[in-house]
């Protein structure tokens, strides 16, 4: 049975959404096309009608995951426009975010995987990282764009590193301490 163009476009978006979540949970190489397509409710044969390769899907799924992360930052800042950085720190450096394997930060979940991917996946991550830096830069705007940019890079690196480390350890007290220490450092860096 032939699929309409509208249905094919919807199927493509479904595959991208599912891949965005499953890649964050299992890594780019942690899930095969069969299981990925099954997760989307489609057959493996449908994959090649939508994408040229798994790397093409990885690029699209990375973009989607990073857009989702940016959306979460926007939602957080809208909740507390008087202290947008505090709101982002509150959700990003939380135990809940630490446990969000499928919907959490793609930079944390896939950063080391993305470093081993091709230039197109890296470009998607670079664009997402730059978008995060721009948002952080607006939170801490100073007289010097360079000073704001440097602080934004230090803050993002601290937050990503803290969530990554908190996911690697078994000890929940240590995990919490890593997140708390990072939150304190981020606040200090922003205030300096």
From TrEMBL:
What GO molecular-function term can you cite, just one?
A: DNA binding
Which SUPFAM superfamilies does the UniProt entry name for this protein?
Answer: Homeodomain-like, Tetracyclin repressor-like, C-terminal domain
Domain of life from the UniProt record: Bacteria
**Keywords in alphabetical order:** DNA-binding, Transcription, Transcription regulation
**What PROSITE patterns does the annotation carry?**
HTH_TETR_2
In this entry, the residue ranges of the DNA-binding region are 32-51
Residue span, HTH tetR-type domain: 9-69
Listed Pfam families = TetR_N
- Give the matching PANTHER family: TRANSCRIPTIONAL REGULATORY PROTEIN
Listed name of the protein: TetR family transcriptional regulator
Lineage start? Bacteria, Pseudomonadati, Pseudomonadota, Alphaproteobacteria, Hyphomicrobiales
């Amino acid at each position: 049975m032939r699929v309409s163009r509208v249905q094919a476009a919807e199927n493509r978006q479904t595959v991208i959404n599912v891949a965005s979540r499953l890649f964050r949970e299992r890594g780019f190489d942690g899930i095969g096309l069969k299981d990925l397509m099954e997760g989307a409710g489609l057959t493996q044969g449908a994959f090649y009608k939508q994408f040229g390769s798994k790397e093409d899907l990885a690029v699209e799924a990375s973009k989607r995951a990073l857009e989702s992360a940016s959306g979460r930052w926007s939602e957080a800042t809208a909740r507390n426009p008087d202290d947008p950085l505090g709101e982002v720190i509150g959700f990003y450096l939380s135990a809940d975010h630490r446990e969000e394997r499928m919907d959490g930060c793609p930079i944390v979940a896939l950063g080391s995987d993305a470093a081993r991917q091709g230039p197109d996946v890296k470009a998607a991550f670079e664009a997402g990282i730059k978008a995060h830096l721009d948002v952080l830069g607006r939170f801490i705007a100073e007289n010097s764009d360079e000073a704001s940019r440097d602080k934004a890079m230090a803050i993002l690196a601290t937050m990503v590193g803290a969530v990554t480390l908190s996911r690697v350890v078994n000890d929940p007290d240590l995990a919490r301490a890593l997140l708390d220490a990072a939150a304190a450092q981020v606040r200090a860096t922003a205030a300096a």
